[in-house]
Amino acid sequence: MKVSEQLQLRRRELGKTLQTISDLTAMSVPQVSNVLGGKVDSRLSTVEALADAMDASLVLIPKHLLPEVARLLSGKTIGPDDVPSTVDRLLQGA
Fold it and tell me: What b/e sequence results for 20-32 when a residue is b if at least 16 CB atoms lie within 10 Å of its CB, and e otherwise?
């Protein structure tokens, strides 16, 4: 799923209007609509501002950790309790 699609989904989940997001980010409503609709290739700072306006964070995950992060987000257990979690490993730079 593209970042713009994830942001659009998040906006819908929160019930925030384009105008609300516009007010929170100081972007115009058409700009917010174009970014969320994937019509423009936005700067990272723009995407971060939109995510922040929707109480979310943009996170880069190394590809080799994606399967573990997906399992973690799905709520499935990953392994024994004494093994560091994926989040701990990611934050420690493992």
Answer: bbbeebebeeebb
Which residues of the chain, if any, have pLDDT below 50? none
- Overall fold of domain 3-53: 434 Repressor (Amino-terminal Domain) (1.10.260)
pLDDT at 78: 58
Helices (H) and strands (E) in the chain, counts: 6, 0
Domain residue ranges of the chain, discontinuous segments joined by +: 3-53, 59-94
**Residue 15 CA: distances (Å) to CA of 25, 54, 79, 90:** 16, 10, 36, 31
The predicted model scores a pTM of 0.69
How high is the pLDDT of residue 40?
A: 93
DSSP label at residue 85: P
Q: Which of 27, 36, 31 is nearest to 5 (CA)?
A: 36
